[in-house]
Design brief:
The complex is a heterotetramer of chains A (about 425), B (about 400), C (about 550) and D (about 250).
Chain A (H helix, E strand, L loop, with lengths): L3 H11 L15 E7 L7 H20 L7 E7 L5 H14 L4 E4 L3 H14 L3 E3 L12 E3 L8 H9 L8 E7 L2 H16 L7 E6 L7 H10 L6 E6 L5 H10 L9 E3 L4 H4 L11 E4 L8 H14 L8 H20 L4 H8 L3 E3 L5 E3 L7 E2 L2 E5 L5 E6 L3 E2 L13 E4 L7 E5 L4 E2 L4
Parallel strand pairs in A: 1-2, 1-3, 3-4, 4-5, 6-7, 6-8, 8-9, 9-10
Antiparallel strand pairs in A: 10-14, 11-12, 13-16, 14-15, 17-18, 18-19
Helix pairs in contact in A: 2-11, 3-4, 11-12
Chain C lengths: L1 H18 L10 H7 L5 H14 L4 H10 L2 E4 L4 E8 L2 E5 L6 E5 L4 E3 L4 H15 L5 H14 L5 H10 L3 H17 L4 H14 L2 H13 L5 H47 L7 H22 L7 H23 L8 H23 L15 E4 L2 E4 H23 L1 H11 L1 H6 L4 H23 L11 H14 L4 H22 L1 H18 L15
Antiparallel strand pairs in C: 1-2, 1-5, 2-3, 3-4, 6-7
Helix pairs in contact in C: 1-3, 2-3, 3-5, 4-5, 5-6, 6-8, 7-8, 8-9, 9-10, 9-11, 10-11, 11-15, 11-18, 11-19, 11-20, 12-13, 12-14, 12-18, 13-18, 15-16, 15-18, 16-18, 19-20, 20-21
Chain D lengths: L11 E10 L2 E11 L4 E5 L6 H8 L7 E6 L3 E2 L5 H8 E4 L11 H8 L6 H5 L5 H13 L15 H15 L3 E5 L7 H14 L4 E5 L3 H7 L2 E6 L2 E6 L1 H6 L1 H8 L2
Parallel strand pairs in D: 3-8, 3-9, 6-7, 7-8
Antiparallel strand pairs in D: 1-2, 1-4, 4-5, 9-10
Helix pairs in contact in D: 3-6, 5-6, 7-8
Protein name (chain D): Urea ABC transporter ATP-binding protein UrtD
GO molecular function, one term (chain D): ATP binding
Organism (chain D): Devosia nanyangense
């Protein structure tokens, strides 16, 4: 019984302060994989799909005969959108369930919360969501986009003739670290490109904000200064639907004021009526509408697994897909699931993207990925209007003066450094 | 007076609880550190901070019980005091990182470098000293409780109204702390701690020590609460809980007494929060969530309010259950939790301890002898008072 | 290049469409031009569009519209551009020029012809030019607006012609503005420009502001003061409108708060149940709307426009039933223990959330707005969105209906009797358990109605209710428990205060300030705005 | 009330007190005087304003208009309940209000005249005198045998007694007693009357009561209240002979 050790653990915990006998026996006939995504609470809306994706990927791998001759066994827990609980559950996965690697987290807070645990217990986290960068850790593989793989190309696109030659910028954001950092990078970037400060407006709203009347009106007003105006939205999760509903109703057309978002994908669009949002943009490394044989096969088998051909796919799913397959490849290469061996093996490995080309694990534990700009269509999908060559993920943004010349190099996981000053050859972060 | 208080604190039940806690404070580190791995009683490393976390939750529940169970003040914002204590501790821990942060800034924590702070905000000064942080852990929750309580109790905001504005308080704090402009790290909060008092927070010995500290702090809180509820002040508090205006007509300044209980409770909650943070390794605004405060109420109700041991048992059991079931039934545990709350309110209104007590007291002959009150310390004054149905409104 | 081309086209249109009846024009090879849309990159597609527009053919606008709407596809087998509509798992193809049926095609056989925002804008302009003289008023209006947005000097003659023929005052005013803008851009006399600026200033709206501020930089020096003055006038004017606009926003937020809180005003305010599951009732109402809409889409697509109307009673009944179930199952054991209802209903709310998550999944669900609830209209300098206007109306109706039920029906009388003195009411033969269940059902049902409305502006997700529960309690407590008018005033005050603070303090700070104000307010009036007085309250 | 009355020699002085709730005039220009060591019985129909009057004296309700003085010099309208109680005004409620969750002994200990501050109660240790006094009161109210029981377990009459005992423990100068004998047996009623008369030798007492035989037993000055003001005053016989009183209260 695979659940037995957990029950044993449960009983021991349940007895709380009594000192119960505690000697779980682990049958070593499977390789366990931890899945650490919120299934309840505010983040369930985004993370549940990733849990399903992980179960799907693991099932697919097992069909192919598993890994190192063993079957993979998913261990799913619910950290309930509660950041300290993320740390606790991560510890449980690693220490009690002895998982070989963990796939999980969505918000930066949850990642920051589990980081010390992964460092302490030396395990691997595959983090599948676009994030603010400014981080590179030995124990984390970042398979989502760094700012230079999403934000900067999106702004470049809007600045280009083809994207509408935007001159005036609204950075509309939810007040947390990812938008703060992204906006900091973008603000610097725009200024470097010669955008005067009065043509940049930054606005923060709280999580789950639902009454966007004033903000949307302010965007309209800002856009009436006679220069082509664009909105860069780092609005998070729940707040997006009311934002776009208000946008559509107040009649902001993409031809007049395009909104480019970094957190709105197929999943989010599924909850809104997009007929009046046609043309608004999103920047990702993957869209469901990408027309490649890999993607078609992926979508088909996903629909088969989930038994619902309406279920969308999205960028974090591709990131999870890449992360999982790269891990599988690394384990096969290393011949073991041992953390340090896998980390050593994984740097430099490549795996085909669903969008064509390959994703390579860089020494800074980020991936190379192409950047795609898509326009929202009436059917809730995106039309790709621009696609770059694969861009290497940059942990420390070159745009920010304080990060100039900072690199991360984990080629050798034992002596690597996450914050290497290439000028002085010193490693800023203490291990 | 002091001796009397100490004597009072040491009633039979309290002594039992305190000894159990002290025993645990020794036994858990022993089982973790001394017993070799593979020994049947060896406790794995990960369990120590987990149990420590439960203890701090139990302490929070005890704090709430002092005002709710004994004084009839249903605070739906108690997690705010817990979080404030936690933040004070978190700020100390952040300052301890020093130049070991990613950006190697000797003064500014990473997130400040990140957000372009040029210098430390004034309210971060002093937190590099443990004594200062310790002082703030006590003072900040106490000050908030004092100001809030002073206003609310003086204006005689009671019952549901009080509950709702305590909720508004913690909600406002939640929103405020989410703001990155406030200078507390926004949504991510404070994390990635390195040292506490020079010891590595991740070392097993430090963890064991923190666990022991939590157990001892809880024991101390039990003593303080027992001393209060066994004193005449405790009787007045219960009187206020059961018939507030009657107590006024007896000449008691109900607002002052409530304020006292509220502040003491906030301090206990703050200390609990301060012990919580180094053990879980993060403090963020999520702790201010009104839902968290409601959960604390539920732990207390499950264990048995108006008793000292009840909230401790409730806090431990519910949280241990949560740990187990979020892993065991990730998709269904909320049903179990929700069901538990409904079940307890319907069928065990006095909570676990209250129900057990009524079970036992039925067998015992009624007490006839109420001997000299002078010997309060040695006498069997019930820690467990019967809550009156409907008395809180 | 593009501009020169456009000028050429405009000239051609002017020449072809008006001077010569198009029957006389040489027939360009339109099918070939249409097929050219399917090839090449975005710039090449733009050229193809321009060529099509140049034909001036009346079949062109619908084709361009189809292109903009994403309905034009390229058939891979013969590189022909076709119109495709979803049919079953594949597509049904038609000829875009004559609508002739071209048979079905699988998804893999055709490629969508993509457009981007730039092209979409071009298409819109082109259609605008080609439809400025359309007999249909709406088409003409949007054509005029398009021309205003682009204000291409080449359009001037066309515009003059259209202006002469125009009778509709609204369209005329848009055209005049467009003409003035064009005049500003062309090389004419200062006097002409001065007149144009005056015209623009007299419009005094946001569009005029946009036009003037962009004109300011390139304007001749002697005109600059006039423009600056005009901008100042407009800004003053707009400032007044801003206040009015804030009132509109405040009203809208107030209606949302009222809807969310009014059910709670019954379950909590009247019955004294601290109903933490109230938000979940709202959420269930939104899901009922979702289910009803989907059922109708599947089984009775003809009724789609009425889905909302059908959702209203369905949501009310369903959530009322759930409410009655909760009351009979749990709440009735807890009367007289209000603070314990908090614990039980919190448990219920967790269960309901997870149940919805288990059934519908954690993702947002789409509740499509009916057409009469989309878009906005202008009222002076105000923009009013239809969905919010309807929600305000709906909130007023719900409030009035609730007042009627409570004050004018036997059930309402019994409810008030039971909540005031249960024992007495029972002694007088009122079936108190029945009345309790009905009251709780009514409160829950009203919460369900709120869910129907909120499905139009917010996420339909299991977390929907969580976002409103605290606000609802604030409204009810602020207004005073047990008084629907208090709830109304509470919702309006909080909504207005929030919206007037927001532009200055920002959304987060505004909310914090409101919360602090509520806390302070409760100190002044510990029982809310409309507190009951007298001895009875204390008991 | 005649203007000639010297406010400074009274124990309780109400002059022209009015209060209304949502338009309903609960008290209408009410004037009442109680002298030191005097007992006053107040009768009157329901809704006459008896309880409201007590609320005003004890600080629970603020009058809209009028003067309320205690001991001839303290303006009660400026004080809150606790301050008024500490001046030496004790109140027994119409519905017996004792602390049901606590023992009989604790109820009396709470009422005992001792410092009421937070820290003095926290550090309170029962002195021998206090214990003796509580035992004495227990004897008086005949609850010695039940001193360790929860007050919730007492009968209605016993609760009435306990509340009277709490009044005694407070050692007030002025006692406001609202329907003290409701729910008591005849013999208990007689004993209560005796007790109250005894108390009135050293303090002032205001008794509100419907039970005419009990009022007769008290044998003291009587005021009849109706619609918020004094209808008639005098001995019970005088008052009950008053035609207006008969019409409005006693019934034909």
């Amino acid at each position: 019984m695979t659940r037995l050790p957990r029950i044993a653990a449960g009983l021991a915990l349940g007895a709380a302060m009594t000192m119960g006998a505690f000697a779980p026996v682990f049958a070593q006939d499977t390789i366990k994989v931890g899945v650490l995504h919120s299934l309840s609470g505010t983040m369930a809306i985004s993370e549940t799909t990733l849990k399903d994706t992980m179960l799907f990927l693991i099932a697919e791998q097992n069909k192919k005969g598993g890994l190192l001759g063993k079957q993979l066994e998913p261990v799913v827990v619910d950290p309930a959108s509660d950041w300290p609980l993320f740390a606790e559950k991560a510890r449980e996965l690693i220490a009690v369930d002895k998982v070989a690697a963990v796939f999980g987290c969505w918000t930066s807070s949850s990642r920051k919360s589990v980081l010390p645990v992964f460092k302490e217990l030396n395990s691997i986290l595959f983090y599948p969501v676009q994030y603010e960068g400014e981080e590179s850790e030995k124990n984390v593989i970042y398979t989502g986009a760094a700012p230079n793989q999403q934000a900067i190309p999106a702004v470049d696109y809007l600045m280009s003739e083809e994207g509408g030659a935007v001159k005036r910028w609204v950075l509309e954001a939810t007040d947390y670290v990812y938008p703060r950092t992204t906006n900091k990078i973008l603000e610097q970037y725009l200024k470097d490109k010669g955008v005067p400060p009065e043509d940049i407006k930054i606005n923060y709203t709280p999580f789950g904000f639902s009454d966007w009347q004033t903000e949307v009106a302010a965007i309209k007003e800002f856009g009436s200064a006679g220069k082509k105006t664009g909105v860069v939205s780092t609005i998070n999760g729940d707040a997006n639907v009311p934002f776009y509903k208000e946008l559509a109703n107040q009649g902001i057309k993409a031809e007049d004021i395009p909104v480019v978002a970094f957190s709105v994908g197929e999943e989010e669009l599924a909850g809104m009526d997009t007929t009046n949002l046609v043309g608004h943009l999103a920047a990702w490394n993957y869209f469901q509408s990408v027309d490649t044989p890999e993607n078609t096969a992926f979508i088909d088998s996903w629909h088969g697994f989930i038994a619902n051909d309406k279920r969308t796919t999205n960028d974090p799913m591709e990131a999870a897909y890449l992360g999982f397959n790269l891990w599988v490849a690394a384990v096969e290469k290393a011949g073991t699931t041992d953390t340090d061996a896998v980390l050593k093996a994984i740097v430099g490995l490549s795996y085909p993207n669903l969008t064509g080309g390959t994703a390579t694990v860089l020494p800074n534990h980020h991936l190379t990925k192409p950047v795609l700009i898509g326009e929202v269509q009436a059917d809730g999908q995106f039309d790709i209007v621009s696609q770059t060559e694969p861009v290497p993920g940059d942990a420390w943004s070159d745009v920010l003066p304080e990060d100039k010349g900072i690199e991360a190099d984990w080629t050798d996981p034992l002596t690597g450094c996450g914050h290497l000053d290439t000028a002085t050859k010193t490693c800023g972060a203490a291990p | 007076m002091i001796t009397q208080l100490v004597l009072r604190a040491l009633d039979r039940r309290a002594v039992w609880v305190v000894s159990a806690l002290l025993l645990v404070a020794l036994a858990i580190p022993f089982a973790n550190l001394v017993l070799p791995e593979g020994h049947p009683l060896h406790l794995p490393n990960y369990a120590v901070p987990l149990f420590g976390k439960y203890l701090t939750y139990a302490m929070l529940a005890l704090a709430l019980d002092l005002v709710w169970g004994y004084c009839g003040i249903l605070s739906l914002g108690h997690a705010a005091f817990f979080a404030l204590g936690g933040y004070a501790m978190g700020m100390y821990l952040m300052r301890q990182i020093g130049a070991r942060g990613v950006y190697a800034n000797p003064v500014l924590p990473d997130f400040m470098v990140f957000l372009n702070y040029k210098e430390l905000p004034w309210f971060w000064n002093g937190f590099d000293q443990f004594w200062f942080a310790a002082l703030m852990i006590v003072l900040v929750p106490a000050a908030l409780a004092f100001v809030f309580g002073f206003l609310a109790f003086r204006s005689r905001v009671t019952g549901v109204y009080l509950s709702i504005i305590t909720q508004a308080m913690t909600y406002a704090l939640l929103l405020a702390f989410f703001r990155n402009d406030l200078g507390f790290g926004g949504n991510n909060g404070l994390t990635d701690f390195k040292d506490i008092l020079g010891f590595n927070v991740q070392a097993t010995t430090t963890r064991a020590a923190l666990f022991a500290a939590s157990a001892i702090a809880l024991a101390f809180a039990v003593l303080v609460c027992t001393a209060i509820v066994n004193s005449k002040l405790g009787k007045v508090m219960i009187a206020i809980r059961d018939a507030e205006s009657r107590t006024r007509f007896l000449g008691y300044r109900v607002d002052n007494i409530k304020l006292f209980a509220f502040v003491v409770s906030a301090v206990i909650a703050g200390i609990a929060g301060a012990l919580y943070v180094p053990q879980v390794g993060i403090i963020n605004p999520g702790e201010f969530d009104p839902g968290n405060s409601i959960e604390v109420v539920i732990w207390t109700a499950v264990g048995g309010r108006g008793t000292i041991i009840g909230p401790i048992i409730g806090g431990l059991l519910v949280n241990a259950g949560k740990s187990v079931f979020t892993g065991l039934w990730p998709d269904y545990w909320l049903y179990a939790l929700g069901g538990l709350f409904v079940f307890v309110t319907l069928f065990m209104p006095k909570g676990i301890v209250g129900s057990l007590r009524s079970l036992f007291s039925r067998r015992k002959p009624p007490r006839q002898d109420n001997s000299e009150p002078l010997e309060t310390g040695a006498k069997d004054i019930p820690i467990i008072a019967e809550p009156q149905p409907g008395a809180a409104e | 290049m593009a501009i020169r081309l456009l000028r050429l086209i405009a000239f051609l249109i002017a020449a072809l469409a008006f001077a010569v009846p198009h029957a006389a024009a040489q027939t360009p090879d339109i099918p070939a031009l249409v097929d050219a849309l399917g090839q090449g990159s975005f710039p090449e597609r733009e050229a193809a569009i321009n060529a099509l527009v140049a034909t001036g053919d009346e079949r062109v606008p619908p084709i361009l519209q189809a292109l903009a709407d994403g309905n034009l596809y390229l058939r891979k087998s013969d590189a022909k551009v076709v119109l495709a509509a979803k049919a079953g798992s594949g597509f049904a193809l038609t000829n875009p020029l004559d609508g002739a049926d071209l048979g079905p095609a699988a998804k893999a056989e055709i490629d969508k012809i993509k457009v981007n925002n730039g092209l979409r804008g071009k298409i819109r302009t082109a259609i605008g030019q080609m439809t400025l003289l359309s007999p249909d008023r709406t088409t003409r209006l949007s054509a005029a607006q398009t021309i205003l947005k682009n204000a291409d000097p080449a359009m001037r003659d066309l515009l003059d012609k259209a202006l002469a023929a125009e009778t509709d005052p609204q369209i005329k005013s848009v055209m005049e503005l467009a003409r003035a803008v064009i005049v500003l851009k062309t090389d004419t006399t200062i006097e002409d420009k001065r007149a144009a600026i005056t015209t623009i200033i007299s419009h005094g709206d946001r569009d005029a502001q946009t036009v003037l501020s962009s004109a300011l930089a390139d304007a001749p020096d002697e005109l600059k003061p006039l423009i600056a003055d005009g901008l100042a006038t407009i800004a003053r004017n707009l400032q007044l409108w801003d206040i009015a606009q804030n009132l509109v926003y405040g009203t809208s937020l107030a209606s949302v708060l009222l809807l969310a809180a009014i059910g709670l005003a019954i379950t909590f305010g009247v019955m004294g149940v601290i109903n933490m599951a109230h938000g979940e009732m709202v959420m269930l109402g939104a899901y009922v709307t979702f289910v009803v809409q989907n059922l109708i889409a599947t089984y009775a697509p003809g009724l789609a426009e009425y889905a909302m109307a059908i959702s209203i009673p369905s949501a009310f009944l369903f959530t009322a039933l759930v409410g009655v179930g909760i009351e009979r199952g749990v709440i009735r054991w807890l009367y007289g223990r209000p603070l314990e209802t908090l614990l039980a209903t919190w448990g219920i709310s967790l269960i309901l959330q997870q149940a919805v998550r288990s059934i519908f999944g954690a993702n947002n669900r789409l509740v499509a707005p009916p057409s009469w609830m989309t878009g906005a209209f202008e009222l002076g300098g105000l923009t009013i969105t239809w969905n919010r206007l309807w929600i305000v109306v709906f909130a007023i109706i719900v409030f009035a209906a609730l007042q009627l039920v409570l004050n004018r029906t036997p059930l309402g009388l019994q409810m008030r009797a039971v909540t005031q003195n249960r024992r007495m009411a029972s002694a007088m033969g009122i079936r108190t358990p029945f009345v309790d269940a009905m009251t709780f059902g009514l409160g829950s049902g009203v919460a369900g109605l709120a869910g129907v409305a909120l499905s139009q502006i917010d996420n339909v997700s299991p977390n929907l209710g969580q976002g409103y529960i605290i606000d609802s309690f604030m409204v009810v407590v602020f207004g005073g428990v047990g008084n629907l008018w208090g709830t109304l005033i509470g919702a309006v005050s909080l909504g207005m205060a929030n919206k007037f603070l927001e532009p200055y303090a920002g959304a987060v700070l505004a909310k914090i300030i409101i919360l602090v104000l509520i806390i302070l307010f409760i100190q002044r009036r510990p029982r809310g705005l409309f507190a009951l007085k007298g001895r009875a309250v204390e008991q | 009330m005649t203007d000639a009355t010297d406010k400074f020699k009274t124990m309780l002085y109400l002059n022209g007190v009015s209060v209304s709730f949502d338009g309903f005039k609960a008290l209408n220009n009410l004037s009442i005087i109680v002298h030191p060591n005097e007992m006053l019985a107040i009768i009157g129909p329901n809704g006459a304003g008896k309880t409201t009057m007590m609320d005003i004296i004890t600080g629970k309700t603020r009058p809209d208009d009028g003067e309320v003085f205690f001991d001839g010099k303290v303006d009660l309208t400026r004080l809150d309940e606790a301050a008024i109680a500490n001046l030496g005004i004790g109140r027994k409620f119409q519905k017996p209000t004792v602390f049901e969750g606590q023992t009989v002994w604790d109820n009396l200990e709470l009422a005992l005249k001792k410092p009421r501050g937070v820290f003095s109660t926290l550090g309170y240790v029962a002195a021998n005198d206090d214990i003796a006094r509580i035992n004495e009161i227990l004897e008086t109210i005949r609850l010695s045998a039940r001193k360790g029981d929860l007050a919730a377990g007492l009968s209605h009459g016993q609760k009435q007694w306990l509340e009277i005992g709490m009044l005694l423990a407070q050692d007030p100068k002025l006692l406001l007693v609202d329907e003290p004998v409701a729910g008591m047996t005849d013999s208990e009623t007689v004993e209560t009357a005796t007790l109250l008369k005894d108390i009135a030798k050293t303090r002032s007492v205001v008794v509100v009561e419907h039970d005419m035989s009990f009022v007769r037993e008290l044998g003291t000055r009587v005021s009849c209240l109706a619609e918020g003001s004094v209808l008639a005053e005098g001995t019970l016989d005088q008052v009950s002979a008053n035609p207006v009183v008969i019409e409005r209260y006693l019934g034909r």
